[in-house]
Design a protein that fits this description.
By secondary structure, the protein is an alpha/beta fold. It has a five-stranded parallel sheet with strand order 2-3-1-4-5, with helices on both faces. Helix 3 links the parallel strand 2 and strand 3.
Length: 275
């Protein structure tokens, strides 16, 4: 669509300087996400959040903050790596179709179907014809989902080369973070220019009105997390009525029969105590 700069030209914005201010903003955004999740639980809505980006860009930390206050049984985080033996030989979208959210559920993908036009392209894991065809297939895949009522949110988390190096070295120096490092990380980092070109093509060819891309500059982790949660809240909350749902009269009747409880009784007692 011609609106995207090269990723390494994106300004890295500073985040909140005050930790308390950050925590306050984060809590409010997490409450919004919980309200939206409850809405989808009641309405049967489905939400798909796809998060892509560089190694050490902060995808995991962002996902951790997204799910922190959500109802856990209705949100599923899928960490996407190399295809399993069962998945190999099938169409690359097959394993994503199998992980789509059920009614009332949210699905979060830590890396996505865009691996076809990123790592599989760069590492020659599929033919040139296959990854070029994938742009159309992916757009059709996302169009099918949105036409069927699924809310699709796509986030690309970008980190500068300098900050990525700093974070990777910090992982090397911390034994508790060694599990986050693999030889493939260094192979990918060494091919940064090729990945930048692939990301550029991806943004230009798969940013659509029904499933747009959102880029998050993540050199400042607090900024990135607040921006990511804010984008999700806005996209998922479009057209949602946040009015509290009235208590089902039958449930109120059942509570009265069992405990003699009436709606508003606690509030009335609290008011009487004040007087």
């Amino acid at each position: 669509m011609g609106k995207w700069p090269m990723l390494d030209k994106i300004e890295m914005i500073d985040g909140p300087s005050d930790k308390d201010d950050y925590e306050d903003q984060l809590e409010k955004l997490q409450e919004q996400l919980l309200d939206l999740q409850i809405h989808h639980l009641r309405s049967g809505g489905r939400v798909l959040i796809g998060i892509d980006g560089w190694d050490a860009a902060g995808k995991g930390g962002l996902i951790e903050r997204v799910v922190a206050r959500l109802e856990p049984k209705s949100v599923h985080v899928w960490r996407i790596g190399a295809p399993t033996p069962e998945e190999q030989g099938r169409h690359y979208l097959w394993r994503f179709w199998n992980r789509l959210p059920a009614p009332g559920n949210w699905a979060i993908f830590d890396r996505t179907w865009y691996g076809r036009v990123l790592v599989e392209r760069i590492e020659n894991l599929c033919s040139g014809e296959a990854w070029k065809r994938a742009y159309r297939e992916i757009n059709e895949f996302e169009r099918q989902l949105t036409d069927d009522g699924v809310r699709v949110v796509k986030l690309l988390v970008h980190v500068s080369a300098e900050e990525q190096k700093r974070r990777m070295i910090a992982r090397l120096e911390d034994p508790h973070k060694h599990y986050k490092i693999g030889l493939e990380d260094f192979r990918n980092i060494a091919k940064r220019k090729e990945y930048l070109a692939a990301y550029d093509d991806m943004l230009e060819r798969t940013d659509t009105d029904y499933a747009p891309w959102h880029i998050i500059a993540s050199d400042n982790k607090m900024h990135a997390r607040l921006k990511g949660l804010g984008i999700i809240a806005r996209q998922v909350g479009k057209g949602v009525d946040h009015t509290d749902q009235a208590l089902d009269p039958k449930i109120a009747e059942a509570a009265f029969k069992l405990w003699s409880w009436k709606p508003g009784e606690k509030k009335k007692k609290n008011n009487n105590k004040k007087h």
